[in-house]
Amino acid sequence: MKPAVKAGLVAVAVAIVLIVAAVIFVLVSQRNSAPPASEDGGTTPQVLRDNSHVLDDGGEGAVTVVEFLDFECEACGAFYPVVEELREKYDGEITYVIRYFPLPGHLNSRNAAYAAEAAAQQGRLEEMYRMLFETQSQWGEAQESRASVFRGFAEEIGLDMAAYDAAVADSVTAERVDLDYNDGQALGVSGTPTFFVDGEPVTLERYEDLENAIVAASEAQ
User: Fold this and answer.
1) Helix (DSSP H) and strand (DSSP E) numbers for the chain
2) Is residue 66 situated within a structural domain?
3) Distance separating alpha carbons of residues 190 and 177, to the nearest angstrom
């Protein structure tokens, strides 16, 4: 082989190696700089996720109402009967979703969220949701843990207690609560209850503001 030809082939081979190395470098850099994927594959906070807890499913075309709540929050407790009335009034017309947002200033809000999530894992969220709000005056604002009270609620609604205890102690349950809380913070939630209707935040000044938002969203469809 002539020296000139040999030198040319070497140059081509070196160029190919450099190109491949550059491509690999770019791909690795892109992967390392990409934001971490969320549980459902998204990379941004979401008002509604695939694993969000749906209390009422209105089906296709229904207005979606999402509530970020704290079971110990007095304002959430005051809104609870309003919400229940709207759920009944607009049954079949709205999809109602709850997401956990335990406020740091409430000692038992996180314990209550764990109890609700443990019940949800047994398909009994609705019962625990009602129990927690309807008894809020009995345990809310306590300055010591009321985890044993919540366990009593679990027994009362007939949960498998071994599974309940395991769920409350499981880090996966805490992570599930944190997922909701972190989404809420990223979406600008700072207090409870905070409602989103068809993805848009609702400004609450009066009790009827939530219903007005539902009606407006329904008319806009």
Assistant:
1) 9, 5
2) yes
3) 16
Please write the tens of the pLDDT for every residue from 155-198.
999 999 999 999 999 999 999 999 999 999 999 999 999 999 99
Verify that 60 and 136 share a domain, yes or no. Answer: yes
Residue 39 lies in a domain: no
Task: Provide the number of structural domains found in the chain.
Answer: 2
CA distance 177 to 69: 11
Give me the domain span that covers residue 7.
1-34
134 and 80 both lie in a single domain: yes
Per-residue pLDDT reduced to its tens digit, 43-70: 589 999 999 999 999 999 999 999 999 9
* Single-letter code of the amino acid located at 148: S
Do the beta carbons of residue 94 and residue 62 sit within 8 Å? yes
Strands in 200-201's sheet, in edge-to-edge order, are 53-56, 94-100, 63-69, 194-197, 200-201
pTM above 0.85, yes or no: no
DSSP characters over 4-37: HHHHHHHHHHHHHHHHHHHHHHHHHHHHHHSPPP
180 and 146 assigned to the same domain: yes
Distance CA 72, CA 69 (A): 9
Q: What is the CA radius of gyration of the chain?
A: 25
Residue type for position 13? A
